[in-house]
Structure formats: structure tokens, C-alpha cells
Amino acid sequence: MASSSNDSSIPLNTLFHLMTIKLSSTNYLTWRNQILPIFSLQKLSGHINGTSSSPSATITKDDKETLNPEAITWNEKDQQAVILLQSSLTEEAATEILGLQTARQIWLALETAYSNASIERVHSLRESLRQLSKGTASAGPALGVGGEDHRPGPDISEGTLFLEKPDMYT
To answer: Is the pLDDT of residue 27 over 60?
Structure first.
């Protein structure tokens, strides 16, 4: 696939080198954070978020049914998305998507398999931080995870986790 000045896509073989994090059972949020911009840049986001659906496979033209060129193009783009997803998985994660054919099916399966574990891990880590103590004082307030000047925890909405930016960096 050649790139033109109007086309911001990057060849797949180059993209494979950009994906340094392979999805495993312990890094869903980090992996997701890496892969979403790649899908956005390649204009493939609709194939994983469900906003792009396959056009009808055939169209009627001059009273004849023929293959729909838009469906062919959509299927090619969806297969690019499938290849990107598959190439970003560990062998363990790849077992979650066996038999799935579309990028949307794969994305939903991975989200179902790994997103809750990542959110639970964040909660577990926050609880561990609360339990840390320095002398007789808890380390939680100093780290912004408990005590009097407790800042709000992660915002978990629609399965997405956004961690707040610490005040000291603003």
C-alpha cells in the first residue's frame, strides 16, 4: 500500500515495529493505550469501536446483482485491523480470539477477557498503597490515595480507565 500526501497510513510492516507491547493478562490498559492511536492514524478505529459496519456484499446495477466495491474495500480495511490486532497479542491472548473473523469481534473478546482484570489490578494496587506505612503515618495521603486530602480515584466510565494527573505536574 503506497502512501500519498493525503494518506496518513503507515505500511503494516512498519506498524509491527511500533507495537512494542504485546497484550497479556497483566497489561491490557497499557496495550490499549498503545494500540488506539495506531488504529486512529490508520483510520481503522471504526472497525474496532463498532461505528463502521460492513456494507451489503452485493448491489443491483442495471437489473444485475454484482459485488459491491464498497464492501470489498471495507473487508480489506477490516482485515488490516484484524492483522494489526493479531500481531499485537501474546500467544496466551491469541487463544481468546480463535475463530473470530472481524476486528470488532476480536476487540470485544479482548475487552471482555482483559479489561476487568486490569481495573481490578488498579484497585488492588491502590489498596496496597493504602496499606504501606512509613513509621506510624500511612503513605496513602502522601501518595494521594487516602486520608484527609484524599483525591478522587480513577474515573472508570464505560470500561475506560483514566488516571488523574498529579497536581505536582500541573
So the answer is: yes
Tell me, what's the pLDDT at 137? 56
Q: What is the distance between the terminal CA atoms of the chain, rounded to a whole angstrom?
A: 42
How would you class 134 by CB atoms within 10 Å of its CB: exposed for 0-12, middle for 13-18, buried for 19 or more? exposed
Q: Is 160 helix (H, G, I), strand (E, B) or coil?
A: strand
Each residue's pLDDT tens digit, 107-153: 999 999 998 766 676 777 778 788 885 445 555 555 555 555 445 55
The whole-angstrom separation of Cα 49 and Cα 156 is: 18
Count the neighbouring beta carbons within 10 Å of the beta carbon of residue 117: 12
* Residue 96 and residue 109 in contact, taking contact as beta carbons nearer than 8 Å: yes
How far is residue 9's CA from residue 6's CA, in Å, rounded to a whole number?
Answer: 9
8-state DSSP, 98: T
Question: How confident is the prediction for the chain on average, in pLDDT?
Answer: 79
Per DSSP, which regions of 47-123 are E strands?
58-61, 64-67
CA distance 53 to 22: 27
Please answer whether residues 42 and 9 qualify as being in contact, where contact means their C-beta atoms are separated by less than 8 angstroms: yes
In DSSP terms, 23 is beta-bridged to: 89
Taking every pair of Cα atoms in the chain, the longest distance, rounded to a whole number of angstroms, is 83
Q: Are the CB atoms for 21 and 30 separated by under 8 Å?
A: yes
